[in-house]
Design goal:
Number of domains: 2
Strand content: 15-25%
Radius of gyration: 23 Å
Number of strands: 17
Bound molecules: adenosine monophosphate
Structural class: alpha/beta
Helix content: 25-40%
Strand order of the largest sheet: 3-4-2-1-5-6
CATH architecture of the largest domain: 3-Layer(aba) Sandwich
Number of helices: 14
Length: 422
C-alpha cells in the first residue's frame, strides 16, 4: 500500500478528501476549527513536496446548493492556516472547477464547493415525494447511482493521485470517500496523516486490548447507539451507559423519570441489554442519581435526586454526585477506555459537571498507563472545553466512523485505499 510519507507529490495534483464539516455560527464564523487543523499536516506535506492539493469536503447536510452550507465561508480561514491564497471553485464538478484544477500550479491550492450539493456524492436520491411508490423509489435510486459514476469520474479527472484524510466519513461509501479510489492505481492512492493515525488508534483498541476495557456511551438516544452497544457487550468488561439514554433504562425498570428524555419504544430493548450484559459477564453501569431541572434550559431551577424518583415537571439533565463517584471508580481502574457521548446536556454550562468528572477520571487513568480513546463530536467538544485533549491518549475526529470501526465493520473509505472489497 502506498503511504503519504513515501509519496513525492512534486508536480502532481492530489485530490484530497478532507472533513471540513466544521460548526459555523449564524454569521458563518467557524466556532471550532479542529477538523481543518487536523488535515493541515497532509496538505502541507503535499505543498512542501511541490504538489497542488485539490480539496474536496462536505459541510452539513444540504439537500442541494445553498449559501448556508457553502464552503466559501471557510475559504479565508483555510487560506490563513495554510499560508496560501486558496482558490475556490463554486461548483465542484462545473466547468470552472475543471479549468481551475487544470491550471493549478505547484504550491497552489483549490478548494471545491461542498460535494454534497450533489445527490451523487452520497448516491441517494433527493426530492422524492413522500408518497412515492416503491417503483419510483427504485427508479430514482438507479438514476442517481448511474449519474454517480460520471460525478465520481469527473472528480477523479482533476488529479494524478488521491489522498483520503477524512476519517469522519470513512464509514460512508460515497463518491469522494470511496468510489473515487477505483480511478487511481495502487501506487497513486493513500491515506493522509490523519487517517493513518486514526486507523492506528482503532487497531490499538481492537488488537491489543489491555483490560479492564471500559466503554462510556453517552448521548441522547438508545436507538442511535443500539448496534454499537450490542457489539461492545462482546468486547468490554465495563459498559457505562449514560446521558439521555439513562432514562429509558430507568423507566424500563420501573423508575419514575418525570419529564426526562425517554424512548418508550426502546424500553424492552433496554431490558434485553441489561440481560445480555449479565449473560456475558459485562459490568453494565447505569446512573443512580441525577441533576434535575424544572425546564430544559441552563438557568432552570435545579436539584439532585435518585434517577428513580424524579418528580413530575422535572427532568434529568446530568448525572448526580453519587453516579460521578461510581463512574470514576470504574474508569480509574481501567486500562483501555473508549468515550463517546456526554453524561448530560453539556451544552448548558450548569449541566457539564458530570461530563467533566468523566473526563477527569479518564485523564487520571491515562496518567496511570491506560490507553484512552475519545471520539464523537460531543465528547470531543467536551475534552476540548475542559482542556483535556492532550491528556488523553487519542482524540478521534470520527464519531460514527470510529464506532463502526470499533464494532469491527469494514469502513469503505479505508477498504477502498487498501484495495479490499467493501
Ligand atoms: P448524541 O447526538 O446521541 O450523541 O447525543 C448528544 C446529545 O445528547 C447532546 O446534545 C446532549 O445535550 C444530549 N443529552 C445528553 N444527556 C441528556 C439528557 N439527560 N437529556 C437530554 N439530552 C441529553
Amino acid at each position: 500500500m502506498q503511504t503519504i510519507d513515501n509519496f513525492n507529490f512534486a508536480g502532481k495534483k492530489a485530490f484530497v478528501r478532507v472533513d471540513f464539516n466544521v460548526p459555523l455560527d449564524e454569521n458563518f464564523n467557524i466556532t471550532d476549527d479542529t477538523r481543518i487543523r487536523a488535515a493541515l499536516p497532509t496538505l502541507k506535506k503535499i505543498l512542501s513536496d511541490g504538489g497542488s492539493p485539490i480539496i474536496g469536503s462536505h459541510l452539513g447536510r444540504p439537500k442541494g446548493p445553498t449559501d448556508k452550507f457553502s464552503l466559501k465561508h471557510i475559504l479565508g480561514h483555510v487560506s490563513e492556516l495554510l499560508g496560501v491564497d486558496v482558490q475556490f471553485a463554486s461548483d465542484c464538478v462545473g466547468e470552472e472547477a475543471a479549468v481551475k484544477a487544470a491550471s493549478l500550479q505547484p504550491g497552489e491550492v483549490l478548494l471545491l464547493e461542498n460535494l454534497r450539493f450533489y445527490a451523487e456524492e452520497e448516491g441517494k436520491p433527493r426530492g422524492l415525494a413522500e408518497d412515492a411508490s416503491d417503483e419510483e423509489k427504485k427508479a430514482a435510486k438507479k438514476a442517481v447511482k448511474e449519474s454517480q459514476q460520471d460525478f465520481t469520474k469527473k472528480l477523479a479527472s482533476y488529479a494524478d493521485c488521491y489522498v483520503n484524510d477524512a476519517f469522519g466519513t470513512a464509514h460512508r461509501a460515497h463518491a469522494s470517500t470511496a468510489l473515487i479510489a477505483a480511478y487511481f492505481d495502487t501506487d497513486n492512492k493513500m491515506f493522509g496523516y490523519l487517517m493513518e493515525k486514526e486507523v492506528k488508534a482503532v487497531e490499538k483498541v481492537l488488537k491489543d486490548i489491555a483490560r479492564p476495557f471500559t466503554a462510556i456511551m453517552g448521548g441522547s438516544k438508545v436507538s442511535s447507539k443500539i448496534e454499537i452497544i450490542e457489539n461492545l457487550l462482546n468486547k468490554v468488561d465495563n459498559l457505562i451507559i449514560t446521558g439521555g439514554m439513562t432514562y429509558t433504562f430507568t423507566k424500563a425498570q420501573g423508575g419514575k423519570i418525570g419529564n426526562s428524555i425517554v424512548e418508550d419504544d426502546k424500553m424492552e430493548l433496554a431490558l434485553e441489554l441489561i440481560q445480555k450484559a449479565k449473560e456475558k459477564g459485562v459490568n453494565l453501569v447505569l446512573a443512580v442519581d441525577a441533576k434535575i431541572a424544572n425546564d430544559f434550559n441552563n438557568d432552570a431551577q435545579t436539584n439532585f435526586c435518585s434517577v428513580n424518583t424524579i418528580p413530575d415537571g422535572w427532568e434529568g439533565l446530568d448525572i448526580g454526585p453519587e453516579t460521578e463517584k461510581i463512574y470514576a471508580e470504574v474508569i480509574e481502574r481501567s486500562k483501555t477506555i473508549l468515550w463517546n457521548g456526554p453524561t448530560g446536556v453539556f451544552e448548558f454550562e450548569n449541566f457539564t459537571h458530570g461530563s467533566r468528572s468523566v473526563g477527569e477520571a479518564i485523564v487520571k487513568a491515562t496518567q496511570n498507563g491506560a490507553f484512552s480513546l475519545v471520539g464523537g463530536g460531543d465528547s470531543v467538544a467536551c475534552v476540548n472545553k475542559f482542556h483535556m485533549a492532550d491528556k488523553v491518549s487519542y482524540v478521534s475526529t470520527g464519531g460514527g466512523a470510529l464506532l463502526e470501526a470499533i464494532e469491527g465493520k469494514t469502513l469503505p473509505g479505508i477498504a477502498a485505499i487498501q484495495g479490499i472489497p467493501y
